[in-house]
Every structure is written in C-alpha cells, then in structure tokens.
Design brief:
about 425 residues, alpha/beta, Rossmann fold, 6-stranded parallel beta sheet, 16 strands, about 30% helix, about 20% strand
C-alpha cells in the first residue's frame, strides 16, 4: 500500500509564517519524505536522562524517522556547552513532537510552548520514573498529550495508574556497537591483581535511592580483609554542597572498610566511565529503585556479570540467566529526598543474599563469565537502536483513533515507519 507523509516538501520553507505553515500542513501533503520528529531533551547533559535522550534519537533514526534535536537544560550540562546549543532547531514540518522529561518536573510542558508548535502535531511525553507511587496532579499535567511513553515496564505500570491512561514502554538504547573498546584495569585506574566490584552512580539522582551503603555492607560481609578483592565506588557530581551531609555518611563507611574500598569522586567524562565499567570484574547495583538501570545494562553490554536488586526498571532486561538478581522486599521510604516522599514505596535489597552473590561471582568465575556472555547477547537483542526503534513504531501504531488529522502509521517492508496517511 502506498501511503503519504505528514510533512512538507522543501517548498514549504517559503511560507509566510510558522503559523501559516501549520495550517497549510493539513492540506499540503509532501511527496515521500519520511516521518519526522522534533525531540526536546537533554542532548547536552551527561546524566542518565542525557543518554536516554540521545538513545531515543538514535533509535528513531534507525527506523527511518528524521530527528531534529532541541536541547533542554538542567543542572549538569556538558563542559563544551555553548549558547548556540540552545538555539531552537524546531521544524514545524515534522509531524511528531517528543518531550523527554520526568513527571515530578511539575511543569505543564505543552503549555510552555507556543500554540503553533504543538497544535496539529502528535505530541508525546517520554517519561522517566522510579517508584510505584506518584502525584495526583500528574493526570492533568499529561492529559493533553497524544501519547505517553515510559522507559520501562515498571515505570509504565506506575504512570498508567496515576495518569489514568495507557502508557507504552520505550526503553533506553544501549548500543553495544557504539561503545568504546574495553580497557585494562590499569588504564581505568583500578588495581591489577585484585578482583574488583564496581558501582557507579550520580549523586544528583538521589543518594538514598542509589543506596551505596548496601553495596559496602554486602562487600564487608562477603570478604575478609586479607582476600584480594576490592570494591570501587564512583560517584559523579559529589562536589555539590547539597550532597555533602549525605555523602559524609558514605565516606565514613568507606573509611571503616579501609583500603579495600576505592572511592572515586572526580567527575569523569562518559568515555572514562565506560572504561571503568569495562575494566571491572563485576558490576553491583543494590539500588532501592531504578527507572531503567542504565549502568547495569552498559556493564552487561561489555559482558560483565552484574549483581542487582530484583526490583524496578532493570527487570526489563535482567534475568536469573544473565545476571545475579538479589532478593528484596518493598518498604516505605524513611528518609525523603527529592520526589521520593516519606511513606512512598521502594525496595530494600537483602544484604545477606547480595553478599552471597558477590562471593559466588568471585569464587566461580567461569559461571559468572557465562552469565556475562548471556547478558551481552540479551542487551544486543533487546536494547539495540533497531530494537528500541521497533518499540517506538509499536507505540505510535497503538492508537487506532486519528490524531490531529493523521492516522494509520504504516510499517515499511523493512520494519521501519513508512509514512502517515491523511484522513
């Protein structure tokens, strides 16, 4: 079936105004350009949402969706950021607007943009969230969006409950082919001759939620002081005054364990962090909740065995066959931090089981390596740009009702998104 695109041909750039162009797109069909998207997200940020944003654009391009990148700012921006990065690259000819965000931003996103940018477009919120709980006001915040996507099944289930609407899963991309090659321990700043466990986290993403003390306590329980084993904690954005009191408790526990713990608080670039992940013998994340679990997936992409809490977004790609999943129980938040309020729910990993998993990974390296090999294959299968691109296609095709005058998003013969059929 031959279908037409919901974008202009190049002649539409000569219209008198963006408003006129939006009106014109209802009656002016283009001649074969692929469907396109304006993506508003954290393209110039090193945080997890930055990787999430860049991966989304990569997945869209992998299935033939043209992407225009629109930079959104936050507290942790790339060192090479320039004013020009914030120049809007919005193209009103593209039929999709995708807003990468999080529900506790508490902003009516669509109302913060001019009407001509959002009217007659398919507007999509792609959200990261880490808990079962949520805000009663979120329903109103997202009711004007045509689609809502979430970065994991766990997040989607939670958001569906609070938004009272379908939420579709579009995971984060982990492109194994685009990762830098692995490096040696000495190149990564780790000590040769010691089996090294690693946990990497960003202090800006809630230290209470990341829960580094659990990894420290499990490590102390698993190994005696004279064994050739080390735990490395890499903390990003630890310099902020807001984190000082909370991080001091982590540092005190590190000192109690002595030189077996390597604490790295210097801010690394992404390539350096990936080198660290690739060089470690085993990755550990005893988080209380994860929206997705990006560092776990990256470690798996390198074929590293991963020990992680059996809870939340990481279960989209972690199984007992490809990982060491640690038993956990759901508990109420005791110490509120950011959007995670006292009395809401997250998980507490079993220190005893985590310690047993650490000991198992160390004592049985062949079996641990086999899990890592399975993990690498699963990441390639589940989280590649093409795989996530297919999730995007499925999400776009999920609503049979017409959206702003266009419907029937069609698959091309190679599985990509073809065109939009005018209704």
């Amino acid at each position: 079936m031959e279908v037409m695109t919901a974008t202009f041909n190049d002649q539409s750039s000569h219209v008198a105004s963006p408003e006129a162009a939006v009106r014109g797109r209802i009656v002016s069909m283009a001649s074969g350009l692929p469907i396109g998207a304006n993506v508003f997200g954290y393209f110039k940020s090193s945080i997890g949402l930055g990787e999430f944003t860049r991966g989304l654009a990569t997945a869209m391009r992998a299935v033939g969706i043209h992407v225009r990148e629109n930079v959104v700012g936050n507290v942790a921006m790339d060192a090479d950021l320039s004013p020009g990065d914030f120049v809007r690259r919005f193209d009103y000819r593209q039929s999709l607007n995708v807003f990468v965000s999080y529900p506790h931003l508490d902003t009516m996103l669509l109302r913060s943009y001019p009407a001509w940018m959002v009217e007659e477009h398919t507007n999509i919120a792609h959200l990261a969230w880490e808990q079962r709980d949520g805000g009663a006001h979120w329903r109103e915040m997202y009711e004007d969006f045509d689609h809502v996507w979430a970065i994991s099944g766990f997040a989607a289930e939670s958001l569906e409950k609070h938004l009272h609407r379908p939420v579709h899963v579009v995971n984060c991309v982990v492109d194994a082919d685009a990762l830098p090659p692995p490096v040696s321990k000495s190149q990564a700043g780790l000590e040769d001759g010691r089996f090294t466990f690693l946990y990497v986290f960003d202090a800006n993403s809630s230290i209470e939620r990341k829960h580094p003390e659990a990894a420290l306590r499990a490590f102390a329980r698993a190994f005696s002081r004279d064994e050739p084993v080390r735990l490395c904690l890499k903390i990003s954005n630890s310099h902020r005054v807001a984190h000082r009191e909370r991080l001091n408790r982590v540092i005190d526990l590190c000192h109690e364990l002595g030189p077996r713990v390597q604490l790295v608080t210097e801010n690394y670039g992404r390539r350096h962090i990936l080198g660290l992940i690739s060089a470690a013998d085993c990755y550990v994340s005893l988080h209380r909740a994860e929206g997705f679990g990006l560092t776990c997936a990256e470690a798996m992409a390198y074929g590293r065995p991963v020990i992680a809490t059996r809870y939340s977004g990481n279960l989209d790609f972690m199984t007992d066959r490809n990982s060491f999943l640690v038993d956990a129980r759901e508990v109420e938040v005791e110490y509120p931090e950011g959007p995670f309020q006292r009395g809401s729910l997250w998980a507490e990993a079993s220190i005893q089981h985590a310690a047993a998993c650490m000991r198992d990974a160390y004592s049985h390296p062949v079996e641990a390596r086999e899990r890592g090999e399975h993990a690498a294959l699963d990441v390639r299968r589940l989280l590649s740009p093409k795989a996530i691109g297919q999730q995007i296609i499925d999400a776009l095709k999920s609503r049979p009702a017409q959206v702003h005058g266009f419907s029937n998003l069609a698959l091309s013969t190679d599985g990509g998104l073809d065109k939009a059929l005018p209704t």
